[in-house]
Amino acid sequence: MINIRWLRANLLELEFHLQTMRPHIVFLQETWLDASIETVSICGYTIVSRRDRSDHENRGGILSLVRDDFNKLVHVENSITEERSWYFLHVEPEILLAGNWYRPGATVHDSYVGLQTDLTKFMPDVTGIIVTGDLIIHHARWLRHSNGNSIQGADLKVVCDNFCLQQLVHEPTREQYLLDLYLTDIPATKLKVGPYIADHRMLLATLPLPETQTLQISRQMFNVTKANWNALTNVLVSADWSATDRGTANDAATYFMELLWTILCTHIPYETVVIKKRNHPWLNARCENAIAAKNAAEGHASFEDQREKCAGVLVEEHQKYVATLKEKISKLKKGSKQYWRLNRELLCKKGRCSSIPPLRERFG
After folding, report:
1. Which residues contact 186 (CB under 8 A, 6 or more apart)?
2. Which residue among 58, 85, 236, 243 has the highest number of C-beta atoms inside a 10 angstrom radius?
3. How do the pLDDT tens digits run along the chain, 364 residues long?
4. CA 156 from chain center: how many Å?
5. Of all helices (H) and strands (E), which one includes residue 330?
6. In 3-state terms, what secondary structure has residue 83?
C-alpha cells in the first residue's frame, strides 16, 4: 500500500515509482482533481474510487487505485462531510477496513466525531483497521517531528488509544514535519518513508498477511470422565504395596510407578486424541467452503456475489468466535494465566498455531 500526494505536473514521476515498486493498492491525497477532469489514467492501475476536491477553499481531493491484477479492494462509502473514503480489503480469512483520508489544515475541528462514528459502524464487520493519509496535525510527544502541540493532535491520539490504533510513521514527510500518518491495529505491519513527489514523501506499507496454518497434534491421554472410580479406589486400597519396603529407593519407585500405571490403565480409558490448532481459530468448514466458492468464481460474472457471500460468512463466524471468547473470559479470574492468554488472543484477533508436547507420554 502506498500513500502519495498528486500533482498533474508530477504524473510521470508518480508512474515511474508505481512501475518500479508495483504496490497492490495506491492511496492518493490532494489530487486537485475536479469535475473538469473527466478521466484519470495510470498505466497498470484501475481506479477504485475518486472523491474530488469540493468547492470550498483548501480542499485537495483523494483517489484510490489498485493494480490491474488485484481485485480484493472494495469501495464502501465516502464521508459526506470530510475528504475520507472507506474500503474493505478482502484477504481471506481476513477482512480489513482501510481509510484514505485528506484533512486540510483549515478543517473545523469537531473532535473527530465522524471518524469515530465510521470506525464504530465498521468494526463489527472487520478483523483489522488501517487509516492513512495527509492529516496535518501536530503533537510533539506522540509525533516526534511536530512544531508543537495542538488540540487536533491530542484528540486524535485519544481516538487511536480508544480504538487500539498505532501510528507507524516516525520520519518527517514534509520538510521537517511529520504530517502523513499511518494508523493501524494490524501487528507486524512494516512501513518505509520513500522519496519526495511534489512537497510530500510517499509512504510504503507492507501488511503481514500469512497463510492460514493448521497444526494437527495427536496425543494419548486418560479420559477421566469415563473412569470407574469405585473400582479404581478399591483396587488401590487392596493392592500389595509391600514391595516398596524392600530393595533400594529406585527399585521401590519403579515398582510403585509400574503398578500404579497398570491399575490406572485398567480402570480409566487411555485414548488417542487429535487436537487441531489454527492461527485463525474462527476459520471452520463453513468459512473454508465460502472461500473455495469465491475463488472458483473468479473471472466469472458471479464473482462479486460470491465475494459478498464469503465476506458475510467470515464476519459471522468471526463474531461468533469473539462472543464465545468474551464469555469464557468473563468467567475467569483476572489473575489467572488463561484470563490473560485469552485476552491477548482477543486483542490480536488470532490464535497461536503452536504447541508444547507433553514432557512425558506415560508414567514410568
Report:
1. 96, 128, 129, 130, 207, 208
2. 85
3. 554 444 444 676 777 778 888 999 999 998 888 777 788 888 899 999 999 877 665 567 899 999 999 999 999 999 988 999 999 999 888 899 999 999 988 888 999 999 999 999 999 889 899 999 999 999 999 998 998 899 999 999 999 999 999 999 999 999 999 999 999 999 889 999 998 887 889 999 999 876 666 666 777 888 888 999 999 999 999 999 888 888 899 989 999 999 999 999 999 998 887 766 666 777 888 888 988 898 888 888 888 899 889 888 888 888 888 888 888 888 888 778 887 777 777 666 555 444 444 443 433 3
4. 21
5. helix 303-330
6. strand
Whole-number CA gyration radius for the chain: 29
CA 355 to chain centre: 22
Neighbours of 1 (CB within 10 A): 21
Q: Is the dihedral of CA 177, 189, 196, 67 positive or negative?
A: negative
CA distance 249 to 322: 52
CB 149 within 8 A of CB 143: no
| DSSP structure class, residue 6 | -
Q: Mind listing the domains of the chain with CATH numbers?
A: 2-206 (3.60.10.10), 210-223+269-364 (no CATH), 226-264 (no CATH)
The pTM of the full predicted model, rounded to 2 decimals, is: 0.69
Sign of the C-alpha dihedral computed for residues 237, 242, 247 and 249 taken in this order: positive
